[in-house]
Amino acid sequence: MMRLTTSRPRSFQSLWPALLLGALVGCSGGPAQTEQIQTGQTQTEQIQTGQVQADQTQDIQAQLAAPVQSGFAIKRGVNLTGWFQYGDYNPARLGDLAVLKKMGADFVRLPIEPTRFYDAASPDWKNLETTLSEAGRVGIKVIVDLHPAYNTQRLALTGDARYPALLTTLARKLPAYGLGNVALELMNEPIAPTGDACNPAFDWNPWQAKFHAAARAGSKDLTLILTGSCWGGIGGLLKVRAIDDPKLIYSLHNYDEMPFTHQGASWSGWTLAYSRGVPYPPTPANIAAALPEILYRVPTARMRSQIQTELEAYGKSGFGQATMQTRLQKAADWARVNKARLLLGEYGVLKTVAPPQDRLSWITDMRSSAEKLGMAYAMWDYNPEGSFGPFRNGKLEAGVLKAQGFTPPADAVATPPNPVLTRSPMSNPVEAARLEFADFAQGSQSNSGAPTSYYAYGKPEMPKYTPSPDGRAPIQGGHLQFAYDLPLNNDFAGVAAVVPYKVGAVLDTTPYTHLRLRLKVTGGSKVRVELASSKLDSGGDHPNVELPTQDDWGWETYTIALENFAQSGWGKKIDVAAALKLVENVAITPISTGTAGEISVDDIALVRMADAANPGSLNSAQALPIQDFSGAAGALGGVTDAYGYEQDAAKKTVLSSSQSGGALNVEFQLVGGQDWAGAMAVTGFQKNDAPIDVQELAAVRLDLAATGTDNLRIEFGADGFETASDNPQVRLKVTPKLTTYRLPISAFEQAGWGKAVSVSEFLKRAKNISVFADTVGTQGKFTVDNIVLERK
């Protein structure tokens, strides 16, 4: 698996529905340029159409299992990741080799980043020698796999002479560890260096021949591992022109089907990044059951529609073990024709969000399909920090090891059951609470008046983005707007806009369910949105999500589930749940190297989403009824009054109110030309006007509708506090349709004018709740019903 740092990952957001119809993994295209047989078809055409006869394939298993002439024979292994790709070499992991041998592995595939070995004085040379010596002592074989990062591979496929020189050097050194013990893989998952990864105009064969010759210049006898283009998939293998060399093994990678194996993968296109709980094997019924949980986390309506369409197609595909066997058989048929040996060099399922038991089924089916054909196989990956392998919370997982064909150690942990799906579809999602963060109407300020900063970072720094003298971000047309230009050859460089919540204050986001903002992006970069805090260890990334963008989307509203925020994986680990209670700012950053354009941001808010079509689902706690307006008093005896108020006594607010139809209706006309005027309905909690400690409650719930305005303010009232200040409140966007809103008590705050009060002390002595229409110059009616306080 290639570790990508660009916007060109293994993306199937538009490709994989075609694969569901039985196309081969990897790339499609014309027949390989191989010798034609008597039918007049090329070998590849026969294999793709399944026309190889049974008597031609009966010896495939024995052929694939036979050792190459160098004596290098393998059967079952793993990809030993993280040793020479990224991070520091850890000699403590040498013990993994003996553990793997004891569990039943006879080889490991050892990925190395070539740039770490371009310098002959690099300490990684000595570390590699130590690793190979220990593997020989333990009795486990090693495939040294040149596993270039995207930019390293791009340079190699456009003429970087260091790459073939490294192949020659490695091929010269490796035979010292025994020809039957080591092999060299020329390049992991080659893709086109320009254009689409599987660009049919890219011919991998001349490059593979060049790299083969470079390795043979170092050793005539070392076993070499070759592969196909287009991520090393089966389709790429079928386009390979086999090289006449008896000391070769051909590798293929198989992650069919991507909607299952790569669910949650941020690097593989947004339809996969936002998937979770996708089942295997798929059926229309189990996909329908999984969709509510998935769609809840998808941030835009456009994206929800596309991901639903693609997952429903996967549900109807009939994909399963038989499909796996059929596809691997095509590779085996190619091997028979070309007298080649095969290795399933990578397979696996991202473990973070896949149903654990379904993951075991997939691994078992893929491994057994390879075994039936006599293929050696190596699952990706073996690393306690890895995202695909047999570790759960740092411990070996017995079920995954058994699925791979290994014997688990006695202390291996059990595989957990699949999670129970409980989320129901939201037929009418609404904002039950909203906390405005920034709308940039007042320049480069958040709603609390704190300035938004704008800065560049990188290796090297990008001087064109030197911050402005006042350190503030550019605001144009009432929204934040800034340019970016990210160097292609720099994995760590960029610009960021940081929008603070309040100066010197932190925000607990947990009463809310989503972060909502509007974005307009040109230039094609993905955007990272980060909830950051100086209270966290700076040695790791803060909770963040990556958002897809397209130039033709224009202004797009993203409603991002807070459950999606997580660390990206680099640096020190943090407690994400704790971090979301200490948020100081929202940072917006373009992240796709090699892109340039402009980003516009507006209307940042924290919201709590609920389903207005199912009010009962909004509250699982006990309810304390306050007023349902079926009579003059509520359940606790409190009464409701309505008032009008204005700044200028000569400009009277017109007001009337009535309790009709089982609800309170307040008509208002707020005369313009003054800074403040409004109409309010005040509902007391108790008949004796005694206060209630709402700080100890969970939320207030009420039904609201409005015409003439879409903006209402909900406010608690209490005695004994300075009147020259605003009371704790929440603002809501409402519609003419009577809708249920649930407002967490923790969402109520002062709006910022007048003297500050202790909100927590205020809420301990609350005696009433008010609904305000206060947009001057408006005229209409608002309706209030079913006021309830929820207990925790």
Secondary structure: elements and pairs:
Elements: H1 16-19, H2 43-48, H3 54-57, H4 60-65, E1 76-79, H5 95-103, E2 107-112, H6 123-138, E3 141-146, H7 150-156, H8 162-173, E4 182-185, H9 205-218, E5 223-227, H10 234-237, E6 248-253, H11 258-261, H12 270-273, H13 284-296, H14 301-315, H15 321-338, E7 342-346, H16 356-372, E8 376-379, E9 391-392, E10 395-396, H17 398-403, E11 429-438, E12 453-458, E13 475-476, E14 479-485, E15 493-500, E16 514-522, E17 527-532, E18 544-547, E19 556-561, H18 576-579, E20 585-590, E21 596-611, E22 623-627, E23 640-646, E24 654-660, E25 663-669, E26 677-684, E27 697-707, E28 711-718, E29 729-733, E30 739-744, H19 759-764, E31 766-773, E32 779-791
Parallel strand pairs: 1-2, 1-8, 2-3, 3-4, 4-5, 5-6, 6-7, 7-8
Antiparallel strand pairs: 9-10, 11-21, 12-15, 13-14, 14-21, 15-20, 16-19, 16-21, 17-18, 17-20, 22-32, 23-26, 24-25, 25-32, 26-31, 27-30, 27-32, 28-29, 28-31
Helix pairs in contact: 8-9, 13-14, 15-16
Q: Explain this structure to me?
A:
The chain has 792 residues and is α+β, with helices and mostly antiparallel strands. It is built from 19 helices and 32 strands. The strands form six sheets. Strands 1-2-3-4-5-6-7-8 form an eight-stranded parallel β-barrel, surrounded by six helices. Strands 11, 13, 14, 16, 19 and 21 form a six-stranded antiparallel β-sheet that branches. Strand 5 (223-227), helix 10 and strand 6 (248-253) form a beta-alpha-beta unit. Helix 15 (321-338) packs parallel to helix 16 (356-372). The longest helix has 18 residues, at 321-338. The chain starts with 15 loop residues before the first helix and ends with a strand. The model is unreliable at 2-47, 49-57 and 615-621 (pLDDT under 50).
